[in-house]
Amino acid sequence: xxxxxxxxxxxxxxxxxxxxxxxxxxxxxxxxxxxxxxxxxxxxxxxxxxxxxxxxxxxxxxxxxxxxxxxxxxxxxxxxxxxxxxxxxxxxxxxxxxxxxxxxxxxxxxxxxxxxxxxxxxxxxxxxxxxxxxxxxxxxxxxxxxxxxxxxxxxxxxxxxxxxxxxxxxxxxxxxxxxxxxxxxxxxxxxxxxxxxxxxxxxxxxxxxxxxxxxxxxxxxxxxxxxxxxxxxxxxxxxxxxxxxxxxxxxxxxxxxxxxxxxxxxxxxxxxx
Length: 273
Fold this sequence. Notes:
The chain is α/β, with parallel strands linked by helices and 273 residues long.
């Protein structure tokens, strides 16, 4: 019997990743024979690690922090979403060339629409943070027709840089975190910063939220993330962590690699226990 097809997630650190569990469930669901591992690679090791993986017969890689932009630079072919985001979270081989895709935005929008029944159309949306996490969701959010997309970051310059990259797709208003205390509540507030995972509740002003606000943390944790705790303490109507995005983007990666999309509902149910 031939060896199972090899897949993995590469990041630094990567020991906490739930991707092996998720893709293992996808494989059992589909009857696919595959292995899925963890690869911890420091930034200077990333390119050699990826090339070595594929040279040894590997079929596909998920890419997580801090390597998504390095994966974009490494890819020889790009899917549309990856080209727009200038970040890659899924690598595969296409005609012996490394192809990069970005499934983060698709996964995020599917989670909003399917699992939370939330529409972005006509809504005022705030993204907190202008780093790699924000990069993958800006284009699909603009494509969904919000009334306003506001991007705030600790440094205004970085928010401006990201805004300029998406100029052709729609209007983005930018500000620093310091200017948030003058704004009315938003319909949807998305945390794309990493600071909250360090255990300190974010110092964002409560005026950003109302009882109708939906607050979504791209990060996820077994317990409430600091951002979710802040949102609840300031009266948000509904809160969510990024578990659904994690599973939905993984399903999109699986589709790219294997040609069929798994059913995400039972996987989400397992992770939520």
